[in-house]
Amino acid sequence: MQDVIEGRVWTLGRDVDTDGIISGKYLTVIDPNELKKHVLEIALPEFAAAARPGDILVADENFGSGSSREHAPQALKAIGVAAIIADSFARIFFRNSINLGLPAIEARGVRALFETGDTARLEMTAGRVTNRRTGRSIEFPPLPHHLLDLLEAGGLVEKVRAELAARTAGAPA
């Protein structure tokens, strides 16, 4: 995970639920490359075809509400979303995102700063997001170190794998 992330912004409104991120009809799909073809097809239909790796989603309140499906952040990560910044998140979506290695940043007032097509500069440890077009920025409480460590490792599973490999490498034969 980079400390500073810059990317093209896509904006979304409030209460975008997990079904709006990845429809329930795709819950039997486990291949992330297949899921990414359908990401945001309800909430932002043009996204899957036009998204580029490194894009940033900026949303209003309660992003990721609804069911606790991991498919939603998994599909966003698969298509290359670098981060999601929202006024607020549904707690389970927030934690699923972090556990999968997808930065989810809660920054009150962020949605009002951006339009689709703007460029965002996200400073993770400084706790600041800036609209590069307007120069306007807001501060947010940086994520705690243990969550930054999870993101750095690529998510919870990758962190545990690395820790187990380190223990195995250090164990006597």
Would you kindly provide a written description of the structure presented here, covering whatever features stand out?
The protein has 173 residues and is α/β, with parallel strands linked by helices. The chain is built from seven helices and seven strands, in the order βαααβαβαββββαα. It has a seven-stranded mixed β-sheet. The mean pLDDT is 94.
Second-tier CATH architecture? Alpha-Beta Barrel
In the CATH scheme, the class would be Alpha Beta
Query: What is the spatial order of strands in the main beta sheet?
Result: 4-3-2-1-5-6-7
Note the beta-strand portion: 15-25%
Give the number of DSSP strands.
7
User: What is the string of SSEs from the N terminus onward?
Assistant: EHHHEHEHEEEEHH
Radius of gyration: 16 Å
Secondary structural class: alpha/beta
Low-confidence stretches: none
Oligomeric grouping of the chains: single chain
Distance between the termini: 34 Å
Largest sheet: 7 strands, mixed
List keywords for this structure.
173 residues, alpha/beta, seven-stranded mixed β-sheet, 7 strands, globular
Brief synopsis:
This protein has 173 residues and is an alpha/beta fold. It is 31% helix and 18% strand.
